[in-house]
Hints:
By secondary structure, chain A is an all-alpha fold. Chain A has helices spanning 2-9, 14-55, 65-74, 76-108, 112-127, 130-140, 144-169, 173-181, 186-224, 233-242, 246-275. The two termini of chain B are 26 Å apart.
Amino acid sequence: MSQIAAISDGEAGTDSAVTMVTNRTGTVERVLSIVIPIVMVLLAIAAWQTHIVVNQVPRYIMPAPLDVIRALVTDWGTLYPSLLVTLRITFSALAIALVGGVGLAIILVQSKWIELALFPFAVILQVTPMIAIAPLLLIYMPDTQSALLTCAFVVAFFPILSNMVAGLKGVDHNLLNLFELYGASRWQTLIHLKLPSAMPYFAAGLRIGGGLSLIASVVAEFAAGSAGKGAGLAFRLLESGYRLNYPRLYAALLLLMLTGVAIFALTSLISWLLLHRWHESAIKREN
Amino acid sequence: MRNVSKVFSNGTLALKDMSLDVHRGEFLSLLGPSGCGKSTALRIIAGLGAPSSGDIDWPSSKINARGLPEGDVGFVFQEPTLMPWQTVWGNVYLPLRLTGVRKGDADARIMEALSAVGLADFTKSYPRELSGGMKMRVSIARALVTKPKLLLMDEPFAALDEITRQKLNDDVLRLWRETGITVIFVTHSVFESAFLSNRIVVMRARPGQVYADLPLVTSAVRDENYRTSEEYRATTDTVSRALQEAIMRGAQAK
């Protein structure tokens, strides 16, 4: 009521009333946009639990959600170190891929000849299925950890590289002319024009690379295998499978899934921070 | 500009032995059909792409490594050509930033340039928040911030609506009168060139050359009344006729 009173005090009229209504739908919409996904996930879990209980599915075929949570708590001592291993490999690989991808992209666009000379290697690395070279890497690398890291790096590296190359090359020609007109040096053009202009591409590469580095670190561990203290979540998955300890397998799976969601949220946040002030992809349409 | 020719890499002869003397303080319009090389000529003057033959002579003695008088040339492109990730302030700061002027020292000059185009209140806006006319104003402010002696404008208002364009024409004239700057203005609009210039150079195509050089002397104040005056109509008639002939010549050469 006080809201309505305030409006009639101010610039009253139909417009104000319309504004108020839009505001309310805005709030409702915002609440729903959070509530609906959560409710849907909870419903799915409830359906899963009901299915297990009603049909009396044995635990070694499919565990109930409650069993999974119980396993998560009781096996935390085993799962947590593995989670850390997987996280370390994933994020180190992503970090190296970011530095390497952006760095190499900057070198590649400096000259056509450098690009011609180096691009074949980048393509070969990309198109060769990583799972096929993982066993080889295991032989050539000093230890399992660095082999896994290399695999995850190779997979995350290429999308970042190719996106950055596209971004650095896709600079508005008129702006390039403008920089030339004012006598900008190569370095100034890179810092003030090419890098900012490539940010939307970088953000896309980051999001793809972030997801892929987790997938690759899991797949590489499947292919290369690991054991003991250095075992990641993928090893725990396999191990639990062999032992028919399905609740623990599902718990490991849950941790992987949460890691993936966290990486997605983090990379989305970074790209929003980079772009929200100016790029169309991060701006709500105003109509 | 003496005997300048430009051959593009695909063999097109864009300009052939074009000569043009531009006088200090002049408002010169380069008028011609599309493809007559007027934009090419302007870019060559700006040092964007060297001529295939011929020279550009500058009265100034300080010539930088790229054959341009240091900081003396401002350029306004067909498009506003703003950096979308920079605010209005940051966009106007660019020419100064590239020559190593620090933010603190640049601020007064930037605000002066923005005030001159009536955008002093929009320093923190991003280009996407501005209208087409306002973006063009930012582009003009950026060209003026180095206080150039020569302002080159390449069909700057071609994409704007008639009303915005007239408003900007008035503003450009005012800036020209206040600063005493030399302007070379490329356009394909007879009316725009007749309204703005005190000299119109009509160009023909195939090959691009000067076809007619029309001085335009008027005692009248160029304002809204001038747009509807008899004198303005006579001028546009003369210019239209010259342009028509230039187009005919170009067509015959095809």
